[in-house]
Design a protein that fits this description.
It comes from Peribacillus psychrosaccharolyticus (Bacillus psychrosaccharolyticus). The chain has 13 helices and 12 strands. With 371 residues, it is α/β, with parallel strands linked by helices. The structure holds D-mannonic acid and manganese (II) ion.
């Protein structure tokens, strides 16, 4: 299991590579280019520049998150052809730079959606939180208005301010797109992308929708085991794989994450895992919590156990963490709590490892005695 850490680049991230390097067990950075507009091909030169910056600190750049997908692809518009060609070129360029896994998502319009970016917990830490009622009562027009007035940009994952004007027209366009249409548009994309990924030895790893249900009336399909199964079967190849994100899928208590993880590990469709915890309330609200199992609703021990049982050789990263110890950073992406998340996960992993080593040694000494 390779330990990774998401980093947004020296212009966009208050966490430095030097500090990330000090996290025990760290192997690589999950990175991306943030100055290429969605839909354009990523220039090889810029990818190599990012790679050199990271490798010169002794870290790898094996995983990219995310190469975002242009809305025209998700909408199934004729202009998608151009954006799909650009995406293919990006895959080829990333492969040239030695990248192994590309994480992406297929959520219309928004990436993760929350109603509070700094909800205070009783211990004084702050977390990202979601109020079901607040989302259900938000009309799309109102959202656009709120966003236009919000200058810090943090509440708009994936939304550059200059694209805000497109929001209204996107809501209109998506009102014509059903979930079945979205499945069709994903299939169309995969059919053209996966052969290129195969050729280039890259594994595409689709991230689940966060939260895994429709928001603001927009269709969402990457939401549960059944749909994940349908998607990996659309183009049956290890290149057509998944990012299993425990916090995203886990916001729906009907999703049994360890079970889903085991199922797709068995099928070799999990090159990348996001591990985090989330605390779910009965009314459908949720908030993020520390990684520790007892702090949230997800059993992280069972998740790490599943990875260990399958001798997971892929990549994982801690996902969002709390903001603690006065750190000022991008919500969800501070250094301290995510580093503690890594230590908790490695603690679970190491104890499983020790136990299986011990069992192996006991078995072989039994064999010797029996002979
Ligand atoms: C995060 C996302 O919501 C989450 O769990 O990990 O920001 C994720 O990085 C993107 O949706 C992947 O494309
Ligand atoms: Mn995630």
């Amino acid at each position: 299991m390779k330990v990774n850490f998401r980093w947004f680049g020296h212009q966009n991230d208050s966490v430095s590579l030097e500090h990330i390097k000090q996290i025990p067990g760290i192997n690589g950075i999950v990175g991306a280019l943030y100055d290429v507009p969605v839909g354009e091909a990523w220039p090889l030169e810029n990818i190599l520049e990012l790679k050199n910056e990271i490798t010169s600190r002794g870290l790898n750049l094996d995983v990219i998150e995310s190469v975002n997908i242009h809305e025209d692809i998700k909408l199934g518009l004729p202009t998608r052809e151009l954006y799909i060609r650009n995406y293919q070129e990006t895959i080829r360029n990333l492969a040239k730079a030695g990248v192994k896994v590309i994480c992406y998502n297929f959520m219309p319009v928004f990436d993760w959606t929350r109603t509070d970016l700094a909800k205070e917990l009783p211990d004084g830490s702050t977390v990202l939180a979601y109020s079901k009622e607040q989302i259900e009562n938000s009309h799309p027009d109102l959202i656009v208005e709120q966003m236009e007035n919000d200058s810090n940009g943090f509440s708009l994952p994936g939304w550059e301010p200059e694209r805000l004007s497109q929001l209204k027209s996107l809501f209109n366009l998506y009102s014509q797109v059903s979930e079945e249409d979205l499945f069709d548009n994903l299939r169309y994309f995969l059919e053209q992308i996966i052969p290129v990924a195969e050729e280039e030895n890259i594994r595409m790893a689709l991230h689940p929708d966060d939260p895994p249900w429709s928001v603001f009336g927009l269709p969402r399909i990457v939401t549960n085991k059944e749909n994940l199964e349908r998607i990996v079967n659309m183009v049956d190849s290890p290149a057509n794989s998944l990012t299993i994100c425990s916090g995203s899928l886990g916001a729906n208590p009907n999703n049994n994450i360890p079970e889903i993880l085991r199922y797709f590990l068995k099928r070799d469709r999990v090159p990348f895992v996001h591990i985090r915890n989330v605390k779910i309330y009965e009314n459908g609200d949720f908030e993020e919590s520390s990684h520790r199992s007892s702090d949230g609703s997800i059993n992280l021990y069972e998740i790490v156990k599943a990875l260990h049982d399958y001798d997971f050789k892929g990549y994982f990263r801690p996902d969002h963490g709390r903001m603690i110890w006065g750190e000022v950073a991008r919500p969800g992406y501070g250094l301290y709590d995510r580093a503690m998340g890594i230590m908790y996960i490695l603690g679970l992993w190491d104890s499983l490892e020790q136990r299986s080593e011990k069992e192996k040694a006991e078995r072989s000494s039994e064999n010797v005695t029996n002979q």
